[in-house]
Amino acid sequence: MLVSRFSKFTLVVGLACMALLAAAARAENWPQWRGPQGTGVSGEKGLPIKWDASRSLIWKCPLPEWGTSTPAIWNDAIFLTSHTAENKLVLLRIDAKSGKIVWTREVGSGEAVREAPKRSTQKFHQLHNLASPSPVTDGQTVVVHFGNGDLAAYTFDGMQIWKRNLQEDFGRYSIWWGHANSPVLHKGLAISVCMQDSLADQQQKPVESYLVAHDLRDGHVKWKEPRLTKADAEQCDAYTSPVLLDIDGQRQLVVMGGNQLDGYDPLTGKRLWFLPDLVGGRTVTGPTFGQGLVFATQGQKGPLLAVKPGKTGELTYKDVAWKHKEGTPDTCCPVLWDALLFVVADDGIARCFEAQTGELKWRERLPGKYKASPLAAEGRIFFLNTEGLCTVVSAAPRFDKLTENQLPDETIASPATAGGRLYIRGKTALYCLGKGL
C-alpha cells in the first residue's frame, strides 16, 4: 500500500513538473519593440481573448504621466519609459508578478516642443512625446532612447552603465514630428537609426541621416553609417525602427524610410542592398519579414510592397513580388501569421492578404481609429484601437471576429506578451491581462 501511494505521489509530482517545464518552454520574453523578432508575432500560449476593466485583469499599474513606448519584458522584469509633467524622462522597472514599480530612474529631461519656428528645429506631433522609442534588453542590460537624443544603458538593478546624447554627438535633430525610432541589440551592439530632413534646399551642407552602433559595455561608437537617399524635406523623415532578419543565412538590419528600403550588415554598418524611389512621404509604418519577403509600406499611405531580398547592390521594381495600393496603413505595421499578412489602416479598415501573391482574402471595417500595430499569437490577430478597444479575429483567410474587449484608457502603444500574459500600455496605466481571473 505504501509503495502504491508513493508511486502515485511520484506520478503526480512528475506530471506537475512536466507541466511546469512545458509552460516554461512555451513562455518567451518580449525584449524589444514588436517582440522577439521585431515582427509583432508571439509564440505565447494561453493568452486571454476576453477581458475588460474587471475580467481577466491581473493587475493595473498607474504610470507617471505618459508615453507611447511599449514594454520590454524579461522574465519578471518589465521596463517602460515615460515623460512626466515636470519634463523628466524616466525609466521604470515594474514587477511582472505584482504590477508594482520596483524602481524609477531619471535618465534626462526635455520638452516635447509642439510648435517650431523653422524646419531645422524638431517639433512633436500631439499624439506622442519624448517617450516614444521603446526600451530593448538582452536579459542583462536595458537600453533606452528618448526623443531629445538621450541614449543610455542600465543594469537590471537600475545602475546606469553609460549615457550618450545623439544630438550632442551628431548634430541637432531636424525631424518634423519628433524622434520615435527604437534601438535594437545585436552581438554586444546597441544600434540606432535617425532619419530626418536633409534641409538640402536651405543650406550648403545637408543634414545627415544615419545609423550608429554603440558598444553595449561602455557606450563608445563602434560604427556610424550615413544613410543617403533621394528624398527631400519631410519625405526624408521616418519614425520606423530597424528590424534584424535572417536573409539567405545572413543576419541583416533592414531599414525603411526616406523613400527607400535597405539592408545592412549589423556588425559593420555596411549597406548590402537598397531599393530606392519608393516615393510617398514621411514614413511611420515599419517593415516586417516572412515567407522569404520583406513587407513595407511607402510613406503616407503609399502602396504596400512585398520585396524579394537576397541580392546585393541596387534593387529594382523587378524585385517587388507584388504591391497593393488601396487603403494601406499610415502608422500601423503589418503582421504575418503563417502564409497570411494582416494590416489595418488608421481609419480601421483591416485587410488580409495571401503573403506570397498579394491576393486579398478579406476586407472589414473595425471600430475606431488605429495607431498601435497589430499582434499575432495563437492563430489570432489582436487589433487595438486608440480608445482602448481591442478586436480579436482569427488569423484565417475568412474574416472571423472572436471578441471585442474594452479598457478605459487611451491606447497608442502596441500590445506586448510574455509568460502567458498580455500587456497593454495606456496613457494612464499598464494593464496585465491573463486567463482565468
Structure description:
By secondary structure, this protein is mainly β. It has a single domain, classed as Methylamine Dehydrogenase, Chain H. 7% of the residues lie in helices and 39% in strands. It has 2 helices and 34 strands. It has helices at 2-26, 166-170, and strands spanning 41-42, 57-62, 72-74, 77-83, 88-95, 101-109, 136-137, 141-145, 150-155, 160-165, 184-186, 189-194, 210-215, 221-226, 243-247, 250-257, 260-264, 271-275, 288-290, 293-297, 304-307, 313-314, 320-324, 335-337, 340-344, 349-354, 360-365, 375-377, 380-384, 389-394, 401-406, 416-418, 421-425, 429-433. The strands form 8 sheets. It has a 5-stranded mixed beta sheet, with no helix packed on it. Strand 20 (293-297) and strand 21 (304-307) form a beta hairpin. The two termini are 39 Å apart.
Output the structural class: mainly beta
What is the residue-mean pLDDT, rounded to a whole number? 93
* Radius of gyration from the alpha-carbon trace, in angstroms: 22 Å
Biggest pleated sheet: 5 strands, mixed
The residue ranges in which pLDDT falls below 50 over 5 or more consecutive positions are 1-26
Give the DSSP E fraction (strand runs of 2 or more residues): 35-45%
Helix content: under 10%
CATH topology: Methylamine Dehydrogenase, Chain H
CATH classification class: Mainly Beta
**Gap from first CA to last CA:** 39 Å
Number of helices: 2
Give the strand order, joined by hyphens, for the main sheet.
1-28-29-30-31
CATH architecture: 7 Propeller
The coarse silhouette is: globular
- By DSSP, the count of extended strands is 34
